[in-house]
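Quick entry between incubations.
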Amino acid sequence: QDMPETEFNVVGSIGTLSMYTDKELPFWSEQVPAETGGKVKANVKPFTELGFKGGEIFRLVSTGTLHMATTVLAYNSGEVPMNESADLVGLLGSVEELADAVDAWRPAFAEFLETQHNIKLLGFGTYQAQVIYCRDEFTAIADLAGRKVRASGASQQAFVSSLGGSPVSIAFAEVSSSLASGVVDCAITGALSGYKAKWSESARFISPMPVNFGLAAQLANLDWWNGLDASVQEYLTTGLAGLETSIFELAATETETGLACNTSGPCPHGDPAGMTLVPLTEADETLVAESVASAILPAFAERCGAECVATWNETIGASLGVTIE
Amino acid sequence: MTDTLIENVSRWLAWAAGAVILFGCALPITVDVLSRYFLNRSAVESFEISGFGLAACIGLGMAHTVTTKAHIRVDFAVARLPFPLRAACDLLAACVLAVVAGALAWFAWKTAAQSYAMGAQSMSLLRIPMVIPQGIWWVGLFWFAFVAVLAPLRAVLRLVRGDREGFNELVGSADINAEIDEAVHAAEGRT
Amino acid sequence: MIATALSLLLGLIALSLPVAAVLALVGYILSENYAFFPMTGAAGELAWNASEDFILVAAPMFIMMGELMHRSGVSGRLFDALTPWFARLPGRLMHTNIASSAVFAATSGSSLATAATIGTVAIPNMDKGGYNRPLFLGSIAAGGTLGILIPPSINMIIYAVLTDTSVTDLYAAGFLPGFVLAALFSGIVLVLVLWRPEWGGPKIAAEGLWRARLRGLPQLIPPIGLFAIVVGSIYAGIATPTEAAALGLIATVGLVAVNRQLTLGVLLAAFEGTARTTCMIMLIVIAASFLNFVMVSIGLVQAISDAVLGLGFSPLGMLFAIICFYLVLGCFMETLSMMIATTPIIAPVVISLGYSPVWWGVVFVILIEAALITPPVGMNLYVVQAVRKGGGAFSDLFKGAAPFLIAMMILIGILIAFPQLALWLPSILNPKTGG
Ligand code: NA
Ligand code: NA
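Done. Structure below.
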């Protein structure tokens, strides 16, 4: 292949989680140099190691300080409400549903990023389903009423409130010990990450209902991207589409193995933790749907504005058969 | 005259910075812990407010670290030098601090301005426009940069007048003494 | 690259430039020379992140507690209450110094505040005569260092932020080594006084000793209550470590009010002192976060880690070398700057040698305690010297503090041989993450 020598920096997702260690790191450090004969060199670092918190990455790609980055879109819901569109709390039931929603949304979102934020959208990624872990027994989502649930961000908090629970804000670093000591009754994290962090030793009950996912996007600064040789652009576009697919597959697998590991197995990562799985009932589904319709969607519409709502209705809404009034 | 004004304004801002820690961080957090324990719910979003409180404290209090020479300098070697060399080191230290302060104020401005341009809001249910906490932070850091840039200029002026004592008072390496007085006065209770 | 970075860092620090400015400057120079894109673009965001970090909110609250504590009268009454308990033990008040420091440390997050507070109430007794002054002063300076090993601890909070370790685990891990160190300090005093009985202070009348001991006990209630608020509340499931610091500050203000000392003047002085110290620390934190960003981006951290591991020492040999490095560095560097500047580089190396980050956190804090009492830059020595109103040779202090360094080295040896001394309590209190 006749590519020019190209070197750039890439900021990856959370450095300790499998999206980075199993997918992004091997892609940038092994696959890309191998496939391009060393012509394309990417210097990849997880944002956590760089001392970022997450919210600044979108801005830094937009201003061009960073060439390329993977970032969870919800980190920026405070300044770019549109980012939250496909990862709204309580809306989607599985990683597969998320993949469909994202496909419907992709062209509109890509255009939005290019025209409004000087960013080229190159693909998506996602974490496993984020589920609820609780210390004390519950048999239905309605039982969460009155419990202190650690929730991050306005959407999760609104969701917990509308289910009758009490949303509590605690620094991420303090969640694990707070759940252990009982500062909070319940907390939300990934189906497999909670197993790996041994949350099961303090929380004994788990609900398989995805609260949301942690949808991420692979972003590039538009000016920098336009300056790349066409052959490099073409190679990266195809390569990153492949990365997206494999990350979604990983997330789907990890959601399943995570739930299995936390309960009775089989578990490829260690001994099953023996937590009680609290299956989702029909009443639960009605409750969640009501909460989405009455709390999540109207709040999203208010943050996002009329134009954004119209885009949502035409893309994600159409694929789900839901309309925001 | 302007000297005392600079010092007084910096001290007033430091009082405000400390007050923010007590009334803007400790008090709301205590309210939230109590309401979570007794009422099972958070009351005032102290998690977010106190983070902004710390930023306000840092911004508003920073200039006072210049007027009281709070910044740590490892000066046991320099302190043994004859006055001209020592003065050169002191001046260099003040200039470098001024450059860093100016850069910090500039970057803080860019961050606050970008938040304003994007209409950024905080992540909690309060949805505070980010330009408010970042603006307070920036105003404090701007004053910090102003005071830090004036310090070496004022020091040179005193040196030209032959006022060595005044020069030492302004930028001389007395960090250790100041630090000790601080701890001791705190323990004894200042008047 | 490593040599450039290191010589820049040490050279600029030796020129007596402010440490915070040196860190920022080195970050800038490295990024100009080794990065292939302008890294200063991220400086504003990094500075804002460091400025509003919720976990770091605990630091100014502990600092303000230290500013207000003496006004509460708690420390003086604690000292008087503990005195009769050591009246028969050779060394007498020196043991009281250490014991009051240990108890006070359980309410205070800072070593300087602990040394200054206990020194203020203890030193007038030294001047009544009969004690070897260097040793007496040394027991206060060394005892004060317990402030950061026995929880709560500002240094542990900052270490936790820098290394992504749980503060809860670190607090639990520091508890037993903290009291063992206090016992070792007392042991050193005892041995020295048995060797030189004339150092040990005047006899105290034995009559009515038990009555005095029992009568003083209620004075222990305020410090124990504060400990319950600042540390107990964490393990009781009432508050997170950061929140507990806020509860402690409010309680301290309450104690000052009960002691009828809560005036506007007292508050403003505390505000000013808190702002000054907090901003001094936070400018270093902000500069260090920029330097860290640059060092990670240009691969310097990785290079250092590879170079150190490539030396081919055994893990124990490596650990020994790192401990020596900190003992030397600690002589010359202020401890917070040392901690913030070196942790992002050294901690990953120690962890990759197979040591637990919580265990290393405890050993590291003990090394910081050592740095606080080694000349020429030993802040606790300076604080005690300043509290000593009558004056006297500064050399008294480092002569007197030197024996206690031995106790610290013994404790590190014990921790290497029996890591469980630190790791057992966290594993009991927090089975999922401890150890
Ligand atoms: Na302590
Ligand atoms: Na030292």
